[in-house]
C-alpha cells in the first residue's frame, strides 16, 4: 500500500477549500478501505487573513478525519507553503508527495491518475497545456490568458 501525502497550500481560501477537501477525502477513503492507498492531506495556511483555518477545522471535525493535517504559518507565499508541506510529509516517510490548488482545479480522479501512472519514475507532472490533456472544467478565455502570463 502506497502512502500518499497531498499538500494544499491555502491563502484566503475560505470560500473554496471545503469542497476540495471533502471531494479528496471522500474519493481517497474508498482506496484506503481497499488498502490500495493510505492518504493524508496537509493543508498549509500561509498568512491567511480570512476564515480559512476555521473552515478547514470544521471540515476536519465534520468528517472526523484524522488524516487531515493543518499547518498554519504567518509567512505568505505559495512556494513557501509547498516547501513546508513537503518538509512535513517527509517526516512521515510518504511514498508519494504531491500538491494541488485549494480551488479544486485538479479533481481527485486526475490526481489518482498520476499515482497510477508514476510507475518507477521519480516524479510525474500534470500539464493542462499539452494537446493530449483532457480538461474537465471549461476555462474562460481570460483565465487561460492569465494562466499563460
Features:
single chain; 149 residues; alpha/beta; Rossmann fold
Q: Roughly how many Å apart are the termini?
A: 40 Å
| Averaged pLDDT | 88
Oligomeric grouping of the chains:
single chain
Residue fraction in strands: 15-25%
Output the number of helix runs: 5
Explained architecture:
40% of the residues lie in helices and 19% in strands. The protein has helices at 17-33, 52-63, 78-90, 108-117, 141-148, and strands spanning 2-10, 37-46, 68-73, 96-99. Strands 3-2-1-4 form a 4-stranded parallel beta sheet, sandwiched between helices. The N and C termini lie far apart (40 Å).
Summarize the structure.
With 149 residues, this protein is an alpha/beta fold.
Please outline the helices and strands:
Layout: E1 2-10, H1 17-33, E2 37-46, H2 52-63, E3 68-73, H3 78-90, E4 96-99, H4 108-117, H5 141-148
Parallel strand pairs: 1-2, 1-4, 2-3
Helix pairs in contact: 1-2
